C-alpha cells in the first residue's frame, strides 16, 4: 500500500458527500418535527444519530485511500462524538435532541460543501470560512444549552432526569471542540491564508 499511488476518488467522494448531505437534511427535518409534535421518541433520534456517526466513519476510509494525512481533529471528532452520542442515548438525555437537530443542520451544509469540493471545484474563501463559522457556532450554542440544563439541575425545583455525568461530558465535548475549531479557523484563515484548506467536520 505504501508504494502505490493514491486513489483518484473524485466521483465516489462526490457521491459519498452528497449522500451524507441528503441524509443529514432528512435527519434535520425529521428531528426538527419534534418541536411541533412529541411523537418522535428519544430512542429513534439517538438511534439515527448513532447510525449516522457509524456511517461517517467512512470519511476516514477515503482519506486513507487518497493517502491524505489523518488530522487529530478528524480522529478526535469521530471518536468523541460517537462516545457522547451513545452516552446520551443511554442516559435518555432530553437536551441531546437539540444537539442532534443542530448537528444534522450543520452537517447538511458541511457535506454539501464537501460534495462541491470533492470533484475538484474550488469554493470561495468566504464559503470555506462560513462552514467553519457554523461549526464553531454549533459548539458555542451547545455550551449554552448545556449551561441552561446545568442551571436547572442545580437550582430549579422542577424534576430533571438529566444526569450530572452527561452535563459534565457535554461541557468537555463542546468545550474541546470549540477550542479545536477556533484554533483551526485562526490557523487556516489568518495565520496561513494561502494554505490549502483542510477538510474538517
Automatic annotation (TrEMBL):
GO terms for biological process: fatty acid elongation, monounsaturated fatty acid; fatty acid elongation, polyunsaturated fatty acid; fatty acid elongation, saturated fatty acid; sphingolipid biosynthetic process; very long-chain fatty acid biosynthetic process. Its main location: membrane. GO terms for cellular component: endoplasmic reticulum membrane. It comes from the Eukaryota. Coiled coil: none annotated. The chain crosses the membrane at residues 13-32, 96-116, 128-149, 169-191. It is found in: Membrane. Its EC number is 2.3.1.199. GO terms for molecular function: fatty acid elongase activity. Keywords: Fatty acid biosynthesis, Fatty acid metabolism, Lipid biosynthesis, Lipid metabolism, Membrane, Transferase, Transmembrane, Transmembrane helix. It is an enzyme of class 2 (transferase). Pfam families: ELO. It catalyses: a very-long-chain acyl-CoA + malonyl-CoA + H(+) = a very-long-chain 3-oxoacyl-CoA + CO2 + CoA. Pathway: Lipid metabolism; fatty acid biosynthesis. Belongs to the ELO family. This is Elongation of very long chain fatty acids protein.
Amino acid at each position: 500500500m505504501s508504494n502505490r499511488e493514491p486513489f483518484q476518488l473524485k466521483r465516489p467522494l462526490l457521491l459519498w458527500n452528497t449522500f451524507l448531505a441528503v441524509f443529514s437534511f432528512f435527519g434535520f427535518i425529521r428531528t426538527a418535527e419534534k418541536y411541533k409534535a412529541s411523537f418522535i421518541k428519544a430512542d429513534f433520534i439517538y438511534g439515527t444519530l448513532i447510525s449516522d456517526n457509524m456511517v461517517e466513519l467512512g470519511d476516514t476510509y477515503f482519506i486513507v485511500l487518497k493517502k491524505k494525512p489523518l488530522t487529530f481533529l478528524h480522529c478526535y471528532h469521530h471518536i468523541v462524538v460517537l462516545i457522547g452520542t451513545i452516552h446520551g442515548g443511554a442516559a435518555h438525555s432530553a437536551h441531546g435532541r437539540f444537539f442532534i437537530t443542530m448537528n444534522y443542520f450543520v452537517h447538511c451544509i458541511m457535506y454539501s460543501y464537501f460534495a462541491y469540493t470533492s470533484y475538484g471545484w474550488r469554493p470561495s474563501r468566504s464559503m470555506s470560512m462560513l462552514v467553519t463559522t457554523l461549526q464553531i457556532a454549533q459548539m458555542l450554542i451547545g455550551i449554552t444549552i448545556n449551561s441552561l440544563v446545568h442551571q436547572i439541575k442545580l437550582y430549579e425545583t422542577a424534576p430533571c432526569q438529566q444526569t450530572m455525568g452527561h452535563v459534565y461530558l457535554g461541557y468537555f465535548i463542546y468545550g474541546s471542540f470549540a477550542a479545536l475549531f477556533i484554533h483551526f479557523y485562526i490557523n487556516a484563515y489568518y495565520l496561513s491564508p494561502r494554505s490549502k484548506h483542510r477538510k474538517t467536520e
